[in-house]
Amino acid sequence: MRVITQLPNNNLKDAQKVAQMAERAGFDGCVALENAHNPYIPLAAAALVTERIQLGTAVAMAFPRAPTITAHGAWDVHNASDGRFYLGLGAQVKAHNERRYGLPWSPPAPRMRDYIGAVRAVWNTWAHEEPLDYHSENYTLTLMTPNFSPKPNGLPRIPVSIATVGPAMLRLAGEICDGVRLHPFSSRNYLEQVSVAGIKEGLARGGRDRRNIEVVCGGFIATGRDAAAVAKMRDYVRFRIAFYCSTRAYWDVLRMHDLVELGEKVNPYPRENRWDEMAALIPDEAFDLFAIAGDYQQLPKLIEQRYGGLGDTVSLNFQPDDDVDQLAEMVAEIHRIPCAFEDYAAEAPKARAAA
To answer: Could you list the mean pLDDT of each consecutive 10-residue stretch along the chain, which spans 355 residues?
Structure first.
């Protein structure tokens, strides 16, 4: 099983230090989130001080950026890293699209299908110096002049993954994506019965091999070098669980476990600006359902129990003052856990017409 970690995106020097430390410890990848900062910039900074580790957005918002803008950002980080970049995209929920980005809302799965096709069409135009001629329901791209076209770089193609919650996006990931980032607000039952089942359905639709799609496991991980560090992370994870419990868009997993009442209890707190009180509403039973917690020695076994046979990659964070050798021992143990993913396909998966 592969291991990735998150870069800090509020300080580029810190991002570089974390990336170097992760590379020394044997991590397979570093990712940057899009929350308060642009995710591409820390990845570009990390690319300049690393040689092996994979770098990706996890995730970059798709719809607020035109496909060509996303294509440019990804292409440039891919160049800076000598071909180690992958593009992770997310749709975000309706409220954020409409009220934070000022965008009209439409069903995300068909739009994401067209968006990925458009980005790949732009890359293909640059890589092969061919005319741009992409047509779909949501995007039409037919103009790419030399002044706006990067030169072919001879690098492997850029893999594309998406973050998923619902069945339609899971099927889309299986059909046309190189990877899928499952939502952290997930239990093992939800991962198995909904997430993995949806991906398999998409793989069958696309006639694809499971070995060519990377599944980044959902669920939360609270870890650290000792019990005190784990306890601190447990508090943070408990708040994260409360946040997702408060959002109706993520209640399918609560329904599976007859916990909608918990969601209804937490739901008013953000509107009432009672953020600091939310974590206390999450009982230990719910915490254990959605998260695993253990120190670096305990973690590999816990990961295998929770994610074994379901996913290929886990995401976990460490502290800058952690011991690299201790991290390396943990990563080596996680690498021994079997997984299905082998490598991205040489060519991008071909999309069928939307059903």
So the answer is: 97 98 99 97 98 98 98 99 99 94 97 99 98 98 98 98 94 98 95 97 97 94 97 97 94 96 98 97 98 98 97 95 97 98 93 53
Q: Where are the domains of the chain?
A: 2-226+294-335, 227-293
CATH fold of 2-226+294-335: TIM Barrel (3.20.20)
Q: Specify whether the CB–CB gap between 318 and 24 falls below 8 A.
A: no
Does the global pTM surpass 0.90?
A: yes
Place of tokens 């934070």: 100
Virtual torsion, Cα 213, 219, 222, 225, nearest 10 deg? -20
